[in-house]
Amino acid sequence: MERLIIIFGITTAYVVFCTLYGSWSIRRTKDTGSFMNAKNQLGPLMVGFLLMSEVIGAASTLGTSQAAFSKGISASWNVLSLGLGYFLYSKLMAARYQSLGVYTISGALASAYGKGMRTVVSLTMIYALVILTVATIVGGAATLSVLLNISMPTAVLVIGLAATINVTCGGIRGVGNVNVIHTAAKYLGLLIISVVAWQLLAETPGAMDAFRNLPDTFFSPFGMGESTLLAWTVANVGTIFATQYVMQCIGSLSSPADAKKASLIASVAILPIGLFAAFIGMSAHVLFPTVASVQALPIFFNHMNPWLAGIGVAGIAAATFVTILVCQLGITALVMSDFYTPLVKPDEKHSMRATRIISVIAGLVPIPFAIYAPGILKTVFFARSLRTALAALVLIMFFAPWMGNKRSAVAALVISVVLISVWMALGNPWGIDNIYIAAVVPVVVMAIGHLFGGKPTEAKPAATSFNQPA
Fold first, then answer.
1. pLDDT at 231 exceeding the cut of 70
2. Helix-helix angle 256-287:44-55, to 10 degrees
3. Is 456 in a helix, a strand, or coil?
4. How far from 433 is each of 75, 225, 379, 419, 423, CA to CA, in Å?
5. Quick one: CA dihedral 433, 435, 441, 444, positive or negative?
6. Which structural domains are found in the chain, ordered by start?
7. Predicted pLDDT at 212
């Protein structure tokens, strides 16, 4: 009981501190501009870590360890491919996005394909972000409820409400400040677990030899299978190229050079996360071969002193919060930019009030779904496919502006959403992942639009305020 009290106390203190610290940013969040992208207030180093934190949630850490338990080191590609995504983003996308002068993915595509495209993109992205929020809350709450011996609904409420307070009070600056802490907590937690795993391997008779003698596939970079690795690559690079929070972070920087620098920092900062998580999973396979793979990482908490275990559990909480915070902020930005502001045309005072109200709604809506419909986790890959389809259109906009036109762009996204949905419902026929459908269909539709459609368009920079549509 004393052990549980210590772990529970450390984790609770961590959540309370981060919530209060993020809320403290309310004093610097006085208008919608500072709420949405904190223009010129965040340097490339902080933005780099914020970019990294957006994609390294509980699913990336716990999921990578779980896969490594069965498949070995190649499971790290689940995270390392995100690093590749940010590297390519720094070379291909960062400066181009930054020069557009918009802070939403819908605004970026609307700069080339018009207002109709803005609405379709915004609805698609909002749906994807809501699904991702629910999935992250469910995954994080399921783990924390077991580790802290609390009910699942209680864990969901604590996570959802704490994140909502943080976003509503602090905006992007509050999210940024807290996510730097969350990132440090994740690193520290994974490092502690990795050291404990190494010590157990060294101290358990025969364990180190067993680790070295794992099947060759455990040390092969292709152990997960080429098709899985390719699907991860396409999905994760697509996620980086078309993620709302990434655009908001990039929009907070003052120059394209800073945007590139921040993206490179994110690329490098991600790498140790994947390697730590994979090593933990492989160690669990040797030390605890009979446990379920989903326990590959949490099982090590039973072999730590309660103070270290408390830090490790706080790290899992951190991995859960980072994704939820950025999703809620992204939903708020899209609703304000693409729906509320164009329709209501509020002044600054009313705009700021509406922004906070919408951020509360964005935080509260996923909670009942997480409590009463946890099966929605199965659709998280659908959300990833949607962002891959958006990424394909973004690449066409920047690198093949001669292809397609406004009508074909809207048609490409609508057809992609329909086909992705059908393909997923059919269970990925012939073993073809819906990620490939998401990547290919927009290109095909835009090519047809180029051959039979009207005049192509290209993206133009937009000088906008945060109270007017971007």
1. yes
2. 40
3. coil
4. 18, 13, 14, 12, 8
5. negative
6. 2-381 (1.20.1730.10)
7. 94
